[in-house]
Amino acid sequence: MSEPEAVVGILGAGRAGTAFARALLRAGIAVDIASTRPPRALQHHLKIYAPGADPVLGADIAVRARTSSGLVILAVPQEELDEVDPDWVTGTVLIDATNTWQDELLPGWLQAAVDEQLPTSMALAGRFGAARVVKALNHIAHTEFDDAAQPGAELTQRRALAVAGDDDARGLVMGLLVRMGFDPVSVGGLAAGRIMEPDGPLFNRPLRREDILRFAR
Ligand SMILES: NC(=O)c1ccc[n+]([C@@H]2O[C@H](COP(=O)([O-])OP(=O)(O)OC[C@H]3O[C@@H](n4cnc5c(N)ncnc54)[C@H](OP(=O)(O)O)[C@@H]3O)[C@@H](O)[C@H]2O)c1
């Protein structure tokens, strides 16, 4: 069987991870996806929530992605991040789709950043130092994702999503969002991702490009 044109890895097969997977699959992009469960145990869940996605071990999340798209999406609750081995995503562009919720017991390295009011993506960039971290996909609810992804629509008619990142990795992520059916808008470097967090002005709002540009650096 021939290899698919592009493969994206997704860590986390919950509400967010499977919504991302569905949009990617609709765009003709193959998906490797991991949860805490072994791949065989994940099969049934994926048949329902992300048919066509390939279950893999967390340790194998970037095996195919690394040599095609180069992209892995992080959709694991922040309280579980100590269980995600940074080596799994070495050499990838890691899309940080995570958020901090008030009742979460965060890993110490992440709580320290929150206490200092630093954007959580910056702490993740330190933790996952062998990947290039870009913040995206965190500020839209999974319940809205399927309808909001409109790959057939003109860019200006699509829902806009913000992207924050420090180098050309940001462009790679923006290209992915276009294929998924959104209008990606750069808000600046990783530090600018603060405006995408749950207490920020972009969170869970149906935005157009001009709405996001009002807050971009
Ligand atoms: N829900 C949303 O609308 C939404 C939207 C955007 C962003 N987010 C963010 O995305 C993150 C996940 O949220 P969610 O709502 O999708 O949570 P969820 O429904 O609870 O799903 C979490 C997933 O992460 C998996 N997981 C936990 N530890 C893992 C590990 N060490 N390795 C691999 N997978 C692991 C879980 O595995 P099991 O299935 O085996 O338990 C589960 O599949 C959060 O930070 C959230 O803020 C959520």
Brief synopsis:
By secondary structure, the protein is an alpha/beta fold.
Question: How would you describe the overall organization of this protein?
Answer:
One of its GO terms (molecular function) is ferric-chelate reductase (NADPH) activity. This protein has a domain at 7-152: Rossmann fold. It is built from 7 helices and 8 strands. It has helices spanning 15-26, 39-49, 108-115, 120-127, 142-148, 169-180, 209-213, and strands at 7-11, 30-34, 54-55, 71-74, 93-96, 132-136, 160-165, 183-188. Helix 1 (15-26) packs parallel to helix 5 and helix 3 (108-115) packs antiparallel against helix 4 (120-127). The radius of gyration is 16 Å and the shape is globular. The structure holds NADP nicotinamide-adenine-dinucleotide phosphate.
